[in-house]
Design a protein that fits this description.
This is PilN domain-containing protein. By secondary structure, this protein is an alpha+beta fold. Helices cover about 50% and strands about 20% of the residues. The strands form two sheets. The protein has a four-stranded antiparallel sheet. A two-stranded antiparallel sheet has the order 5-6.
Length: about 270
């Protein structure tokens, strides 16, 4: 290994090596100091949060806390109720669908409902071909019918039409809908679901007390309960002294390092 390069570097004092050295040292010192400052600041913020959380337990009267607990119980029951309806399938909606979509002078003698496959197999009789065509067209126009298949029809000796048809339905028809009469509106109105209502003693209004310092106010609206606190006289926010101090010291270290480099270069030049 040739050590002449190292000796040459010692003999020739390159100024950029000094610049890099001082700059690296100043950055290291500034980074360590900033880490210390922000660690202290983080600890103080965590302590403030802990103090604020503990002070919340002492806010409000016993009656208010009991009312808050009651509201939270209602919210839990409502959420459980909503999850139940979201996961439950209502086969009875298929019967309501057929009741609303069946045209006059149409009779069904066989009815098969496949909830998993979302399909209905029908066998029935129509008064004449015109009424049968109207019934098929009515099925095709329904927004809950995806496909009308396996359509067979025969004309009897009395002129009546015997038919069989398979309807492929939209699976959404088996979900919870508060008003079943809205399921099969003939594209005249938009379906609107109604969510379970909160009991009357809660929906009667907000639970309020005369305004006091740090007072809780529980408000129930639709399916949402909001717990808010009355504003208290705001304390003047302390300036971010730690951040400002860190920036100032960091800038001072950089400036001192630059000044030291300039002085060192002038001394070497002399």
């Amino acid at each position: 290994m040739d050590f002449s390069v190292i000796s040459q570097l010692r003999a020739k004092k390159f100024w950029w090596l000094d610049v890099m050295l001082y700059f690296a040292v100043s950055l290291l010192i500034a980074a360590g100091f900033c880490y210390f400052v922000f660690s202290v600041k983080s600890g103080m913020i965590k302590k403030q949060i802990s103090d604020a959380a503990s002070s919340l337990d002492t806010v409000g009267t016993q009656e208010q806390k009991a009312q808050e607990k009651q509201v939270n119980d209602y919210i839990k029951k409502i959420n459980d109720f909503n999850n139940l309806f979201k996961n439950h399938k209502f086969v009875s909606n298929g019967f309501a669908f057929m009741q609303n979509e069946t045209m006059p002078y149409i009779w069904f003698k066989q009815f098969g409902l496949d909830q998993k496959g979302a399909s209905i197999q029908l066998s029935g009789q129509a008064d004449n071909m015109d009424n049968f065509s109207r019934q098929v067209a009515n099925f095709e126009k329904s927004k809950y019918v995806k496909k009308v298949g396996m359509l067979n029809s025969t004309v009897g000796s009395d002129g009546k039409i015997s038919f069989s048809v398979n309807l492929t339905l939209d699976p959404k028809i088996f979900t919870y809908i508060a008003d079943l009469s809205l399921i099969v509106q003939k594209n005249e109105k938009t379906q609107q679901s109604q969510a379970p209502q909160i009991p009357a003693e809660v929906t009667a209004g907000a639970v309020k007390e005369p305004a006091k310092s740090n007072q809780k106010m529980i408000t129930v609206q639709e399916n949402t309960a909001t717990v808010s606190f009355m504003p208290t006289p705001a304390k003047q926010s302390q300036p971010k002294t730690f951040i400002i101090l860190a920036v100032v010291i960091f800038s001072a270290i950089i400036i001192l390092a630059i000044i030291a480099i300039i002085v060192f270069k002038k001394l070497n030049a002399n």
